[in-house]
Amino acid sequence: VRRATLDNGLKILVQEIHTAPLVSVWCWYGVGSRDEAPGLTGVSHWVEHMNFKGTINIPREQMKGIVERFGGMWNGYTWIDQTTYLETAGSAALDQMLFIEAERMSNALYETAECESERTVIISELQGGENDPDQLLDIEVTASAFRAHPYRHPTIGWIDDLRSMTRDDLYGHYRRFYIPNNATLVVVGDVDADEVFRSAARHFGSIPAGPNPVRLRVMEPPQVGERRVLIEREGTTGYLKMVFHAPAATEPDFFPMLVLDAVMTGAKGVNLWSSFSGAPPQRKARLYTRLVEGGLASMVSGVLLPTRDPFLYSLSFTALEGVALSSLEAAALEAVERLRDSGVDPAEMTRAKRQLRARLVFENDSVTNIAHQLGYFETVVGPDFFPSFQQNIDAVTPEQVWDVARRRLGSGTRTTGWFKPLSDGVHAAQPAALIGSTEAVG
Amino acid sequence: MMPSLVRGLAPVRNTLDSGAVVIVQETSATPAVAINATFRAGSLHEPDHLTGVSYLTGRVIDRGTDRRSADVIAEELDERGVSLRIGSTRHTMTLSCTCLAEDFREVLAIVVDVARRPTFPEQELSKRRAEAITALRQDDDNPAVRAAEMLSEMLYGPSHPYGRRAKGTIASLERIDRDAIAGFHGRYIRPSALSLVIVGDVEAPQVFEDAAAELHGWRPSDVLPSVVPPPPIGPVRRIVTIPMPGKSQSDIAYGFTAISRLDPRYYSYWMMNNILGQFGLGGRLADNIRERQGMAYYAYSSFDATFAESPLVIRAGVDPNNVERALASIDAEVLQLGADGPTPTEVEETRQFLVGSIPRMLETNYSIAAFLQTCEQFRLGLDYDKRLPSLLKGVTLDDIRTAAAEVLHPERAAVSIAGPETLVEAAS
Lengths: 442, 428
Prior knowledge:
heterodimer, A: alpha+beta, six-stranded mixed beta sheet, globular, B: alpha+beta, 11 strands, disordered C terminus
């Protein structure tokens, strides 16, 4: 990987990979929902949406089509620490992709009518998420696990903030954080690195640096006892979630926790863009054998991601039809307590590390995924972290895993959530008024 | 030196004595290998009283073989970081995974063993049945799934293989016993119905040798043709609502039956669908419903054609108060594209996009394997990635206009709406 920094502070990372005629461009910003004050929750995500809606030199209707003409895909996402935009396309599209990202950094329009139109799109996105009981439970449990830190609110925001935020709130946030000295440009694929640096300097070099963004400085106070959430709603299926305060990526506990998660639920890898789309290798994982093979749950999963501040280690369970959530919770706790009492055995350690090694290979299987990982770690954790990732996993000892289990998985740091279905929630389909009508529409 | 894909794919194909087809594509991007074993055996082949037998067979097939217990399979896959996915569709069952190149031979042996010699232990069947019933119940609570399943039933009828739930029903799952599953497996999961695609950091001659050794002695049988009855004739517009109290958003599924993947008009339909509901964020539909009206986070169409007259489906998720407006907007876009056809600019942009996206479709070993399976299933040829641009370039504006005129008629649409309210008064 070759690196450069422009005079305005924009970091550029380039990796040449010539196995396919493709290039992936990602532009990362150090801004996420952690940077949102009360009343403005969801502003980072909404800003991300607005940055697809036209710039001074790219009218909104032409945003679509530039990358597509090269067969490309584009997208973006916002999470707690970061916002990012990507295009993957034929390598001939490189210059256009850099042009789009430079425009997005400095020239987005934020027309009032477009802001209003996007407000309802985002509320629709929020409502779609609420249709999923597991997602609803996740939002409530996360909000309960944090008292002070802005990690407590969902990235999409609270509904009242989405209704009341103004165009100026959005534009102010955009101007504060979308500056070259808060951004990293990542280019991976069938390119010439020198040419990328020259082209990036041409597109981004004249964008002025801004004052370094002032960050909210909030430390989460230690949790002093278990917190519980109960959602009772129409539904068909029970869901259980248990979350624990996790170490930040740079804390010494992070890698032992990653191995711990592999032992408990199977190794996923750490690529937020690609690692979580299917079930991990988990048939021998402790919570799987205890709960799924034990006939209590149809699914168990664990999530631990590298984050800037301490976030959450999250365990999720879907109750098997007819199984009480109390039985599921008791069995899950028993498995957690057994780990805290006795630690892990050598065979489990070997398996967990082998799984993590394989998953790190699998999640670097494309220019898009490689570029994601370069930008993610540069933005969220800082340079030099990712190259030593495998080495850090290899160095984890069984004693360290046992130690983090004892200190971090106790009841005092736990938040437990239940989604308890109220009734079976299944209703018959109904024909609408005009069933069978042959009347033409229009 | 391993080959790059700069000039496209160069797969090698062999047919073994057992009738199994093995296709290998060498790649060098990562020290990993994707395995995709697809059998031409899906829910299409299920008897009416045993719907879901294909799905349940997939859930239990990897839980014990003549040579390996469920526990041994779990151990051997887990210690290599391998997650074996088993997917069941109307027409196929696919066992797929990615492994490290150094583990390839052992993992291939497990995959073939699982497909070839499953024992379907009663205890495993009982657990997997309970999971399948829970999955059905989760679907019951999901407006997007319920709208889609209802649309399929409306388009094809409740007993048509494309119209019924692929996972079966709680009653049918409870009826399916070990004999039913073993019977389904014995009849359909045969080497003569298998295409095994291997993509990754391997050498093709060695893979052929390994595959032949693993498949040796597996008795071939006649491949049973996939026969799909035609959908009901003369559809008229019909709307069904599914009330789901407690939900926040309504999910609309709106569609028609169209053509099969084997139909020569397929490329015209593909481009037409891209213009209607794919290009950019979701074609004309997203331009209207999301971009201009701010009504929905998603509005798009899909056309995943298989062996028979396949559905063209439009989806949108909207606030319950906006259902009528969204439906009217879908009707307007369908009517306009059906009546006027696309613009020359749309045709060229869509063509450039689809031709240009071929290398991106082949970005990972996993996606190359899926692409090669599609080539094999539909007899598209090993050079399909190279021929595809000219097939797309051969489609004219008039071809797309004709395709749109054939299928896009709001007065023939089936519409299902699942969500919190029943506000639909029908947009006609």
